[in-house]
Amino acid sequence: MGPVGTAAVRDGGAALPGGFWAAVRVWLEKPQVANRRLCGAAIEAEGTVLLGESEGGSPRLTAVPGGGTDEGPQGAAELSRLWREVSGHLPPSLTARGRPGSELRAVLRTLLPRARPAGPPAPPTKELVVQDVYSGIVTFLPLEENKEGKYQIKKCNTYEIQLTHIKDEEWSVSIVALSSEDWFSDGITYPKLAWLGNELLPKLAKWSVEQKHSEFRSTLSLISVAKYCKVYQDLKEKYKEMVKVWPEVTDPEKFVYEDVAIATYLLILWEEERKEKGLAKKQSFVDLGCGNGLLVHILSSEGHSGRGIDVRRRKIWDMYGPETHLEELSIMPGDSHLFPDTDWLIGNHSDELTPWIPVIAARSSYSCSYFVLPCCFFDFHGKYSRKQSKKTQYREYLDFVAEVGSVCGFHVEEDCLRIPSTKRVCLIGKNRTYPSTECALIDNQITRYIHNRQTCPVVACDRGVGFNHKDCSDVCKEAGSGLPENEMETSGRIWMPGFQPREKVEQIRNCAALPRDFVDDVVLNVANLLLNTVPQKSCSNTHGGNMNTWNQGESLSLREVAEHLNKETLRRLKSEYGGLQTLLKNNHQVFEVLNGRVHIRDWRKEKPSRKTKPEVKRCLSAEAYKTRLCWFFIHHPNGCALPSESCPYAHGTEELRQSKTIKKKKHTQC
Q1: For residue 27, with 0-12 CB atoms within 10 Å meaning exposed, 13-18 middle and 19 or more buried, which class applies?
Q2: Which whole number is the average pLDDT over 565-570?
Q3: List of residues 6+ apart from 282 with CB closer than 8 A
Q4: Is residue 498 part of a domain?
Q5: CA-CA distance, 266 to 369, in Å (whole number)?
Q6: CA 380, CA 369: separation in Å to the nearest integer?
Q7: Residue 436 and residue 432: Cα distance in Å, rounded?
Q8: Model confidence over 298-328: pLDDT tens digits?
Q9: Which residue among 210, 238, 258 closes a domain?
C-alpha cells in the first residue's frame, strides 16, 4: 500500500462530508469529465452489502435504469454473483475496517473507452466499487475474467479515495494505491499513478467543496450509456466524410458531430421504444425546421422513413441524394400542417416552432410523439418574456416548453444530450397521460391554454393547466386580441392568426449591413468618449517620432457608452442582434470589449491567439496585411502606437494593398 497523493481541503460552508460523496459520484458516473480517453461509464447495478455475513453475504440490490445491461434484474444478479466470487479476496484494508454487520455500498460499473484515431477501441472494463460511508473511504476494484468465466479482482490496480477530517474546517482528500509496486497502466481504463495524483486528485478536492447543484438532469439519463458510446463511434466513423465536403459557412466539425450525437440518441431511444411497445417497424419522423438536413439524412440512412421541412433551402441539400426527403416550406401552426401518419415530430433548434411542436404532435394523432431541443426562446407568438427572476432564463424556458407538453397530455421527460452546445437539454413526449377517448377534452384544454397565453396577464398564465377564462378578469375582454372562445374551440385553419414564421430570406442583423458612414460615426463618437474621459491614461511611446505619450483612454461600461449616444442611433442599433456591443466587437481594430466594459485596443499588447495554429495565423495575416487603413493613424490624437513596419494596417493610402478573399475552410495552405 502506498499513498499516491493528498490534497488539503478547507471547508467553510459545511460542504463536507456530503460534498466528498457527491464528487465520488461524479467520478463513478461521469469519469469522462476527468479522463478524456473514456466515453463514459455504465452503472450496471448497485446495492447494500453487510460485512461479516457468511460467504460475504447476499447483497440487497437495486437495479439502475439506463445502465449497460438490457435488463435491470440481470445487472443485479451479476452484482450478486460477483460479490460472492470476490468477497473472499477483498483487500485486507477493506475487511479490517468493517465491523461485523456494518454496511457497505457496492456499485458495479463498466468503463467505456473512447475510440482511438487508429485501430479499434480498447475493450470495456468492469469495476466493482465499494463505498464505506462510515469510514469515508471508497475502494475501486478492477475485475478481470478468468478461463472459467468467473471474475476476479485485478489486485495490482486497486486503489482507494479517502476523506479525512483533520480539525475544525480542515480536511484532506487522498488517493492510496493498495499495490503500487506492480501497478499496470494502459493509459485508458487503467490510468497511471501519476495521473491519479496530479489530475484526478485535484479535481476530486475541488468538486468536494464546490457545492454545485445542477438544475438539469444527468447527461444521457434516459438511455444506455454503453449503447450510446458504441453507436456514436460507429456513426461518427460512417459520416466523418461530411466534414470534408461541408458546403455551408457554419463550422463543419461542430454541426456534423452534433447531428451525429443527436441521431445516436434518437436511434437508441426509438430502439428502446420498439422493445417496450413490441413494434416491428422502425419509427417514421418529420423534422420541423430541419436546417442543413443532416439529421434527416442520418436517420433516413439508418432505416427510418421521414422528411425534413424548413423555410429556407440549404446548399448542402443537393448533396444527400433522392433518398433524403427535404422540403422548402413555411409551417403555420394549424389544421393544414398536421402529420397523422407520423410517429415522431422532431424540433432540433426549431426556434419559433418549438412550443408548437407538442401541440402539433397532440393534434396529429394519439400515437404521435415528439422530441424538442430548445435553443432560442420563443412563445406561441413572438419572443418569450421572462416571468421569474429566481430561475435562469434557460431553465424558465425549458419549464415553459415542458408545461406546454403537459397541457397537451404528454408525460414529459427531460434529458441532457452530449453535444458541443450550451443548449443541450431535450424534452421528450412519448407517452400520454389520458386515454384516447378524452382527445376532444384535451384539445379544448390546449385551445384555452394557447388563447390565455396570448391575451392574459402573467399571474393568470402561471396558474397552470386548464384554468377558466373567468380567471382572466376583464383583461381578456379589453385586450381584444385572439379569437373568442367558441371560435377557438371549433378550431379554424390557423390556430393563432398573428403567428409569424421565420422569413424565407435570412436577414443579416449583426450590424454588418449597417451603412458604413453610420458605423464610422458611432466608432468615432465612442472612441472620442473614451479618449476624452479624465483622468487619461498615458504611457511612453517607445517607437520614436514627435510624440512622447500615447493616450490609452479610459474604459466605460456598455451602459455608460449607450447613455452618451443619441436616441436615433440607439434605435437603429436595437434593431440589430447584439446592438451596440456587436458593433463595437465588429470593429476589432479600434475596441476591445471585456466583461461588459469597452476599452481602446492597444496593439502593442496584442498576443497571438492560442486557438489558432501558427501556420494558419501566418497565412491569414499575410492575406490581410495592409489591406485596410489604420484607424489610429487617421483619427487618434497621438496617431498609431505602432511604427508603420509593425502595424498590420496601412499608414496612408500609399501603403494599401489589394484585398484578397480569405477562404476560411482551407487555411492550412498559404
Answers
A1: buried
A2: 90
A3: 270, 274, 303, 304, 305
A4: no
A5: 12
A6: 19
A7: 9
A8: 999 999 999 999 999 998 999 999 999 999 9
A9: 210
Closest residue by Cα to residue 358 from 349, 373, 369 = 369
| C-alpha cell recorded at residue 75 | 445487472
Q: What is the pLDDT of residues 251-282, one digit of tens each?
A: 788 889 999 999 999 999 999 999 999 999 99
More confident residue, 472 or 206: 206
Question: Are 59 and 121 in a shared domain?
Answer: yes
Q: Which of 181, 210, 239 is the last residue of a domain?
A: 210
My answer on whether 278 and 424 are in the same domain is yes
Do 245 and 60 contact (CB within 8 A), yes or no?
no
Cβ-contact 543, 642 below 8 angstroms: yes
> Which helix or strand (DSSP H or E) is residue 20 part of?
helix 18-29
Place of cell 453487510: 50
Question: Do 7 and 152 fall within a single domain?
Answer: yes
Q: Give the three-class secondary structure for 427.
A: strand
Q: Grid cell 440490490 — which residue?
A: 61
391 and 532 housed in the same domain: no
**Residue 474 — left, alpha, or beta (φ > 0 → left; ψ -120 to 50 → alpha)?**
alpha
101 vs 466, residue with greater confidence: 101
User: What is the per-residue pLDDT for 665?
Assistant: 42
Domain tally, the chain: 4
User: Does residue 92 have a cis bond before it (omega within 30 degrees)?
Assistant: no
User: What pLDDT is recorded for position 385?
Assistant: 87
Question: Could you give the angle at the alpha carbon of 341 between the alpha carbons of 339 and 344, nearest 5°?
Answer: 70
- Do 235 and 263 touch, CB atoms closer than 8 A? yes
What pLDDT sits at residue 497? 78
Q: Is residue 501 part of a domain?
A: no
Cα distances from 642 to residues 348, 630, 632, in angstroms, run 48, 10, 9
Are 661 and 585 members of one domain? no
Residue 15 sits in the same domain as residue 110:
yes
From 208, 262, 185, select the one nearest 231 (Cα to Cα): 262
In a domain, 563, yes or no: yes
Please, what is the average pLDDT of the chain? 82
Predicted confidence at residue 470, as pLDDT, reads 38
Strand partners, 7: 173
Q: What is the pLDDT of residues 368-398, one digit of tens each?
A: 999 999 998 999 988 898 887 788 899 999 9
What are the Cα distances from residue 135, in Å, to 138, 162, 175, 207, 618?
A: 9, 8, 14, 19, 58
Contact 549, 540 (CB under 8 A): yes
DSSP annotation of 95: H
Rounded CA-CA distance 487/479 in Å is 17
Query: Helix 439-455 and helix 356-364: axis angle, to 10°?
Result: 160
Percentages (nearest 5) of helix, strand, coil residues in the chain: 35, 20, 45
Domain that holds residue 71: 2-210
- Say whether 431 sits in a helix, a strand or coil: strand
